[in-house]
Write a structure and sequence with these properties.
Protein-Tyrosine Phosphatase, Chain A, alpha/beta, 8-stranded mixed β-sheet, 15 helices, ATP-binding, Rossmann fold, 471 residues, globular, 24 strands
Length: 471
């Protein structure tokens, strides 16, 4: 089998090497010219030839092209370099499913994608499944929990599909250390220290999940240089055995999808998992859950009710909780375990969390994908806004979606609150606003202002994945 792996920036090296280890003939196309010297050496060790697409004219027969879903080239763009080849196209997600086809059959596996709320959902699921020593890939790192204790396998790691396999391989090395195998302390069988796996992915899912959770498509942003959209990429979630999806997202983007096991959730009463009697609070929000005709992994169809108390200060947080509950019910996780896990969830440091500094309450909403809707929902969760500074800003990074400064500035112009813009994102918004607002270059100075003036602070900050101290 001849394979061409495109894009060495977003996991292509891992995929190319994995295929080469199976004695395949593998070519690599570094479309963004970001290949590091150490990765070039790694590819050379496994006889992976780095090529440009012009090289395809030298090939004949079959060629499998493995590409990221956000590739700014069409299949026709690639085929024109050698029209005589017999092409097969697979996404990075699809090849990861193939590479892992014999892995994880004895454990529950969850894949999480969506535009907003992915990481929060992963860590709610972690709390619920903590007794199973979960293996996790998230935007906060590759992690393994043993008896409730976190082990960081790799911190600076992206949520590309290739890093699902990287996370699994890292966990394998911990369970099967070469030195202990050589010393006879353990054998070289595929030992595991985890009893479940939770994988976050930015643009879809590989399909290895027993349940795939699609949190939402609150913004259907363009990808692949406007050739495709987020909803198209994330439709790969339907390759999972069961899909938990927001009802509004299903109706708007995927109404023609055929899948036998879909469980929906919504704040409204037209879904499989719904909610009522919500009592919002910045510490613990209480509400009643009702679920009807949930299709489960073991073939049951279940219905019931229970009460939840968890950290969910805004509507968007409650939606995330509903997605997590739909996922857990799909896996036949007892409701008592769901209730206990959600009660233990306190938010995520570096995402949504609350803290007290001196006399000031600080609410942090930190996310690489902040947009106008997210800003609006964050502001709406605060009751006494006159007591708050609202700081908005952040960094421009390497996510697929960029913030619409004009749209945000138009929205902020309608508000009559104490707004402070900060960072490079805040500076961009400031230039487009009509009303005067304060600006602080360093977001840390906003904390100082709030504390000094005995004000509370809502910080809505777009973080760059590369700046780990703000994650």
């Amino acid at each position: 089998m001849n394979s061409l792996v495109i894009d060495m920036t977003h996991g292509g090296v891992k995929i190319a090497v994995s295929l080469a280890k199976k004695d395949e003939t593998v070519y690599a196309y570094d479309i963004y010219n970001t290949l590091k010297s150490v990765d070039k050496k790694m590819l050379a060790v496994y006889n992976v030839k780095i090529i440009d697409l012009d090289y395809l004219k030298n090939l004949n027969g079959n060629l499998r092209v493995i590409y990221p879903v956000h590739l700014p080239l069409t299949k026709r763009d690639i085929e024109k370099y050698n029209p005589s080849l017999n092409y097969t196209f697979l996404t990075h997600h699809e090849i990861i499913k193939e590479l892992l086809k014999n892995w994880g059959n004895d454990i529950p596996k969850i894949e999480v994608t969506g535009v907003k709320g992915k990481t929060s959902c992963v860590f709610m699921l972690k709390e619920i499944l903590i007794d199973k020593n979960p293996l996790i890939l998230s935007s906060l790192g590759a992690l393994l929990y043993e008896n409730g204790v976190k082990k960081t396998l790799k911190q600076n790691i992206s949520i590309t599909p290739a890093n699902i396999k990287e996370t699994i391989d890292l966990a394998y090395k911990i369970a099967n250390p070469v030195c202990e195998i050589a010393a006879g302390k353990c054998d070289s069988q595929n030992l595991k220290k985890y009893g479940c796996a939770i994988f976050e992915s930015s643009l879809g899912a590989s399909g290895i999940g027993d349940v795939g959770l699609l949190t939402n498509i609150v913004e259907n942003y363009p990808i692949a240089k406007n050739k495709r959209t987020a909803s198209e990429a994330k439709s790969q979630i339907f390759n999972c055995s069961i899909v938990a999806i927001q009802k509004e997202t299903l109706d708007e983007f995927y109404k023609n999808i055929e899948h036998k096991k879909i469980n929906t959730f919504s704040l409204n009463n037209n879904a499989d998992v719904t909610v009522k009697n919500i009592e919002y609070d910045l510490d613990k929000t209480l509400f009643d859950i009702s679920y009807n005709n949930i299709i489960t992994a073991n073939g049951e169809v279940i219905s019931g009710e229970f009460k939840v108390e968890t950290f969910a200060p805004g509507k968007h947080h409650v939606k995330n909780v509903l997605g997590v509950i739909a996922t857990c019910l799909s896996l036949n996780i007892p409701k008592e375990k769901i209730i206990k896990g959600l009660a233990n969830y306190k938010g995520i440091k570096g995402r949504t969390n609350k803290k007290i500094i001196e006399n000031s309450t600080i609410i942090e909403e930190i996310n690489p994908g902040i947009n106008t809707k997210a800003i609006e929902e964050s502001i709406n969760m605060i009751r006494n806004l006159d007591d708050y500074y609202i700081a908005i800003g952040g960094d421009y990074g390497i996510t697929c979606e960029e913030i619409d400064e004009s749209k945000v500035s138009t929205y902020l112009d309608t508000l009559d609150y104490n707004i402070i813009l900060t960072g490079e994102v805040g500076e961009g918004i400031l230039k487009k606003m009509n009303k005067p607002v304060k600006y602080s270059k360093n977001f840390q100075d906003v904390y100082k202002q709030a504390i000094h003036n005995n004000k509370n602070l809502l910080l809505i900050y777009r973080s760059d994945y590369r700046k780990l101290n703000k994650r």
